[in-house]
Amino acid sequence: MSQAILNQIVNQLEMLEILELQELDRAIGKYLAQKQQATQLNQKSAKKRQLFREWDAISDEEAAVLKSEFATEDLAFAEIALSDYLPRLQQQDKI
């Protein structure tokens, strides 16, 4: 900023009353907080976009391996959950 503009700003600030300065300070604080929040949201969004790009970039072979791994884990989890299910049903029938 040029010196003339800075001098003009200082002159304007000198004319403001205390309450006006406090109001200006709050407005600046609010603006900075909103700007920081927007920056954080943009960073999160950029991170998500990067993760999607990385996921989309995996090969078909890698996708098949991951799918198989998750299917195996899902099957194991279901077997464990269902192994306890029948005895629970039988126990509830006795009640």
Number of domains: 2
Number of strands: 0
User: What distance separates the N and C termini?
Assistant: 83 Å
Strand portion: under 5%
Helix/strand class? mainly alpha
The biggest sheet, with number of strands, parallel, antiparallel or mixed sense and barrel status, is: none
Radius of gyration: 31 Å
List unreliable stretches of 5+ residues: none
Residue share in helices? over 70%
The number of helical elements comes to 4
pLDDT average, as an integer? 86
Order of helices and strands: HHHH
3D shape = elongated
Compact description:
This protein has 95 residues and is mainly α.
Spell out the key features of this protein.
4 helices; 91% helix; 95 residues; 2 domains; mainly alpha
Can you give a write-up of this model?
This protein has 95 residues and is mainly alpha-helical. The chain has two domains: 1-57; 59-95. Helices cover 91% and strands 0% of the residues. The chain is built from four helices and no strands. The protein has helices at residues 3-15, 18-56, 60-83, 85-94. It is elongated and about 85 Å long.
Write the layout of secondary structure elements.
Layout: H1 3-15, H2 18-56, H3 60-83, H4 85-94
